[in-house]
Design a protein that fits this description.
- The structure is a single chain.
- The protein folds into 2 domains: 216 residues, 2-Layer Sandwich (Alpha-Beta Plaits), CATH 3.30.70.1290; 63 residues.
- The protein starts with 8 loop residues before the first strand and ends with a helix.
- It has 13 helices and 6 strands.
- It has 296 residues and is an alpha+beta fold.
- Helix 1 packs antiparallel against helix 2.
- The radius of gyration is 20 Å and the shape is globular.
- A hairpin with a 4-residue loop joins strand 2 and strand 3.
């Protein structure tokens, strides 16, 4: 996306929702998740463009070096949140059962639609009537005239306060993020609202137009099911082979058991612009089996 002129690649990252489990059960949980999103991005050097925190999953747009960088960032977030959920509710390894969908955003139109889709997530879930009514998203930082807020640097907090408010033992000595009186890391200190605003050509009207006309069902399909462009079997084979070697300690695709192939299906599908027929050709699995696993 040369039009936006920034370093790195842009990814839509989503943790799969756990339909039968509510992970975030009260306001404190949402605040903890909010701060962990900011801290995990700062820890890895990723940049957050947009996000929405739901009770059983999160959506965010990150600028990262590559998909591995995005994967590292979401894994740190999940590890931190898992520790909080274990201490508070006794939930052990619950986030280990969720997959992460990481999709490259390489088109300005796609970026605008994706931002709108994320900010409308609570509307789509019928939690609120308008995106601005949902507190736990980055909506409030875009095209905001008044960005003044009483804040203090996270790095200036005494160790006990860092533990109590941010619920982390992370070394925050050089952390540039700021925190407000409510105990939330401020949107304007960790969200690249300028990138989102430039995507809409610095037009608040354009931003509101996209939020109003976004087709949620269509966007969900495009974000999770429909590849944006075709990648040749040769190129996709190289991508999958590299992932397999990293995941299975040097193994080739042909060395994998059917069970191992099935275990990587969702990651390969959602992290790359591939299709069920192409996955079938590369992994040697029946199309119906792949479709069934992806739908589960």
């Amino acid at each position: 996306m040369k039009e936006l002129n920034y370093n790195g690649e842009t990814y839509h990252v989503c943790t799969d929702g756990m339909e039968q489990t509510t992970l975030l059960r009260d306001e404190e949980d949402f605040m903890v998740a909010w701060n962990y999103l900011a801290l995990s991005a700062w820890k890895t050097g990723a940049q957050t463009v947009a996000f929405a925190i739901m009770s059983n999953h999160i959506h965010e747009i990150l600028i990262c070096r590559d998909s591995a960088h995005a994967d590292q960032t979401i894994k740190i977030f999940k590890k931190m949140l898992s520790m909080h959920l274990r201490k508070k509710y006794g939930l052990t390894k619950i986030l280990h059962r969720t997959d992460d969908c990481i999709s490259l955003i390489d088109d300005i139109q796609y970026l605008k639609n994706c931002i709108a889709y994320i900010l409308r997530n609570a509307v789509c879930a019928k939690i609120c009537a308008k995106p601005e009514d949902y507190r736990w998203s980055s909506y409030a930082c875009y095209f905001s005239k008044d960005r003044s807020e009483k804040t203090v640097p996270v790095s200036s907090l005494p160790f006990i306060q860092k533990r109590t408010i941010l619920k982390t033992g992370m070394n925050l000595k050089d952390c540039p993020l700021r925190i407000n009186e409510d105990g939330l890391i401020t949107l304007h200190s960790f969200v690249r609202y300028d990138i989102a605003e430039r995507a809409y050509r610095n037009s608040g009207k354009s931003f509101l137009y996209y939020l109003g006309c976004c087709n949620d069902a269509r966007m969900e399909y495009e974000l999770t099911c429909q590849p944006l462009l075709n990648v040749s079997d040769l190129d996709m084979h190289e991508i999958v082979a590299k992932y397999v070697k990293n995941r299975f300690k040097g193994k080739n695709i042909s060395d994998l058991t059917s069970s191992e192939k099935c275990s990587i299906l969702k990651h390969v599908f959602f992290s790359n612009k591939t299709s069920i027929p192409q996955l079938s050709r590369i992994l040697g699995l029946p199309r119906k089996l792949i479709q069934k696993i992806l739908a589960s």
